[in-house]
Structure formats: C-alpha cells, structure tokens
Amino acid sequence: DSGVTQTPKHLITATGQRVTLRCSPRSGDLSVYWYQQSLDQGLQFLIQYYNGEERAKGNILERFSAQQFPDLHSELNLSSLELGDSALYFCASSVSGFDTGELFFGEGSRLTVL
Amino acid sequence: SQQGEEDPQALSIQEGENATMNCSYKTSINNLQWYRQNSGRGLVHLILIRSNEREKHSGRLRVTLDTSKKSSSLLITASRAADTASYFCATDDGNNRLAFGKGNQVVVIP
C-alpha cells in the first residue's frame, strides 16, 4: 500500500460528459502528480501541484483541469469526454516539489468512455 | 518532453535466470528511476540513480547509468515468478517532470 488513495477505481461514462477523479496523497507529501496511461500513448505526465500551486505542466488537454486543495488532496476534472480519453489515470505523490525523487503511485482510476 | 526508451520491449525467462533491460534517453537528466507495474496496478518505485552515480544496488537489483551514452540498465538477478511485471525507466529533466518510457514486459516462467 503506497498510502496514495484514488477514487473512483472504475468509471464508465458517455462521450461529452464530465468526470472528476480524486486523489489523496501520502501523509506529509506536498506534491501531487497526475499521469494518464493508455496502450498507445504509454504513461503521459499531465500536471504537478506542490502545496496548492501548479508546478509543472505536461501533455494536458485544455478539456482537462486540475487543482490541489488546502488539505493537499487533488482533483482532476475531465470534460467533453471523447472515446480516446479512455485510460488509466494515476495520481502520485512525493515529499518535495523541487527535485523529482521517488514517486508513490495510487492504484489508478480506470475511465471508460462509451 | 524527453522520454526514456526501454529495450527490449518484452522478455521471457526461466525462474532463477537474470533479466536485463536497457533504457536510453535524449537529454541531460538529474536522475533516472526504475519502476515496476503489475498488470493494471499502480507503479512501484524500485531504485533511483543520480546523474553523478554510475552504479547502484538494491537487493537483487543492479542499475547502471552511463551519462555519456545517455543509457541505463536494470539487472534483476535470480529472477522469481513474482518478478513478472512491466518495468519502466523514468527520467527527471530538471523541470519537475518525470517522463516514463514505454515499459518492458518481463515474464518469469516458474
């Protein structure tokens, strides 16, 4: 158990819909990272937050947004969903926001868009 | 963003044999990490090697880093069936982004 909690574990929705994925980092970790894993794209870095502030941005679509709340949990919002958004979405956390050391991953949220 | 590339992509070995995977990257890095992922599960950190280190050991794992060739290798010695998983290298480019390679699928046959 990494200590990182992601909900929901599975989500099935329709194209055009909006979903929110939630992540609680390990106790004491200030950084939260979001990754998307699909068969064709592999693991893609989406975005990183450190202590409530956006720290780094990757291949995140404009239809996607994220935030980190004062209690350090994070949410990833996916809107106007397309079939291609079907993937496993991982949250990871780490202590530091300045040097990417060991990341602790959650078990992921599997999104299926029909 | 840069991305590690593992080679070979899939490896099938007998229990007790050693498994070696390679990873190459394109630009300078702060550190390189290896992760394991069991099917459909979250990734688990195995080992981190910094750019000024050449070799690191952790239990049955040995990682080497050659910054002149921009490559790393992961050796798993005396493999076990429980080592069956996908193995990813990931590089930190100094911009708070950890970029992952496509992964190596390793199957250890009992």
Overview of this structure, please?
The complex is a heterodimer of chains A (114) and B (110). Chain A has 114 residues and is mainly beta. Helix content of chain A is 0%, strand content 53%. The mean pLDDT of chain A is 94. Chain B has no helices and eleven strands. In chain B, the strands form two sheets. In chain B, strands 2, 4, 5, 9, 10 and 11 form a six-stranded mixed sheet that branches. The model of chain B has no long low-confidence stretch (mean pLDDT 90).
Shape of chain A: globular
| Total E-strand runs of chain A | 11
Main sheet: strands, sense, barrel of chain A: 7 strands, mixed
Which secondary-structure class do the elements of chain A indicate?
Answer: mainly beta
Can you give the helix content of chain A as a percent range? under 10%
Put the structure in a nutshell.
The complex is a heterodimer of chains A (114) and B (110). With 114 residues, chain A is an all-beta fold.
Which structural traits does this protein have?
A: 114 residues; 7-stranded mixed β-sheet; B: mainly beta; 6-stranded mixed β-sheet; 5-stranded antiparallel β-sheet; globular
Q: What topology does this entry show?
A:
The complex is a heterodimer of chains A (114) and B (110).
Chain A (H helix, E strand, L loop, with lengths): L4 E3 L2 E4 L5 E6 L6 E8 L3 E9 L2 E5 L6 E5 L5 E5 L8 E8 L9 E2 L3 E5 L1
Parallel strand pairs in A: 2-11
Antiparallel strand pairs in A: 1-3, 3-8, 4-5, 4-9, 5-6, 7-8, 9-10, 9-11
Chain B lengths: L4 E3 L2 E5 L4 E6 L6 E7 L5 E8 L4 E4 L2 E6 L4 E6 L8 E8 L5 E3 L3 E6 L1
Parallel strand pairs in B: 2-11
Antiparallel strand pairs in B: 1-3, 3-8, 4-5, 4-9, 6-7, 7-8, 9-10, 9-11
